[in-house]
Amino acid sequence: MEEKPAPDVQEAEEGTLKGKIEAILFVTGEPVLVSELATALGVDGKTLQRTLKELKDEYDFQQRGFSLNQFGTHVQLTTRALYSEDVVRMLQPVQKQTLSQAVMETLAVVAYKQPVTKADVEQIRGVKCDYSIQVLVTKGLIREGGRKDAIGRPILYITTDDFLRHFGLSSLDELPPMPGTEDQKGRTSDEELPV
Questions:
Q1: Cα separation values, 47 from 38, 43, 50, 57, Å
Q2: 49, 50, 53, 54 alpha-carbon torsion, rounded to 10°
Q3: What is the pLDDT of residue 109?
Q4: C-alpha angle with apex 187: 178 to 180, nearest 5 degrees?
Q5: FRET pair for 178, CA 20 to 30 Å: which of 29, 86, 155, 184?
Q6: Domains held by the chain: number
Q7: Residue 76 near residue 67, CB atoms below 8 Å
Q8: Do residue 160 and residue 180 come from a single domain?
Q9: How far is CA 43 from CA 47, 56, 135, in A?
Q10: How does 83-109 read in b/e, with b if 16+ C-beta sit within 10 Å?
Q11: Judgement on whether residues 39 and 105 belong to the same structural domain of the protein
Q12: pLDDT digit string (tens) for the chain, length 195 residues
């Protein structure tokens, strides 16, 4: 006859109810129906309500970075208002945030080849660049500069004034030449840029 593991060992293997609730609420990010949460976790409504109250009390007592909010028949994890200024300071302004290597490479392609489509950037970089383009548009470093006269009329991207300000440039003429693409005058020639 197989022996059942001790409760603490079983709990470690299966996780705790509180941990499961946190995981679900964290991943969804949206309000979740309490009844659906109970069904998903296989617990009765009374047990779930007691556990939600315990979690809320723990978060409030410890002043955790998130709060457990229950309104009506829904429950949701949200950022604690106490820390909202810190979150905003981390996410803003654009000038204080660093750009990843992939985002910088995408930005370089747009800056030197503009106006350019996402497909053109992907062809030059050799990888998908949806995320990098989205980050650059969100940060205001590039913007839509029209549509290419081709099948599907893809968006053409160009740099913005914020791009110039971010890098301390007064115009695109101040961009350094791309390595290996200088003509005799030391200026970058469009004909010599790799496609």
A1: 9, 6, 5, 15
A2: -150
A3: 94
A4: 35
A5: 155
A6: 2
A7: no
A8: yes
A9: 6, 18, 41
A10: eeeeeeeeeeeeeeeebeeebebbbeb
A11: no
A12: 555 545 554 444 567 999 999 999 988 888 899 999 999 999 999 999 999 999 999 999 999 988 898 877 889 888 888 888 887 777 665 445 578 899 999 999 999 999 999 999 999 998 999 999 999 999 999 999 999 998 889 999 999 988 888 888 888 888 888 766 554 344 333 434 343
- Last residue within a domain, chosen from 59, 83, 107: 83
The residue assigned the tokens 């115009």 is: 171
Sheet holding 142-147, edge to edge: 116-117, 155-159, 142-147
- In the β-sheet with 66-71, what is the strand arrangement from edge to edge? 32-33, 74-79, 66-71
In degrees and rounded to multiples of 5, residue 67 shows phi and psi of -120, 155
Distance (Å, rounded) from C-alpha 90 to C-alpha 141? 18
Inter-CA distances, 123 with 18, 114, 126, 186, Å: 47, 14, 5, 27
Instruction: Look up the CATH number of the domain holding residue 65.
Output: 1.10.10.10
Token reading at 27: 């991943």
SS3 assignment, position 72: coil
Domain that holds residue 19: 7-83
The confidence score (pLDDT) of residue 186 equals 42
At 119, the amino acid letter reads: A
Look at residues 83, 102, 130 and tell me which one is the last residue of a structural domain: 83
Within a domain: 88: no
The amino acid occupying position 46 is K
The number of residues in the chain equals: 195
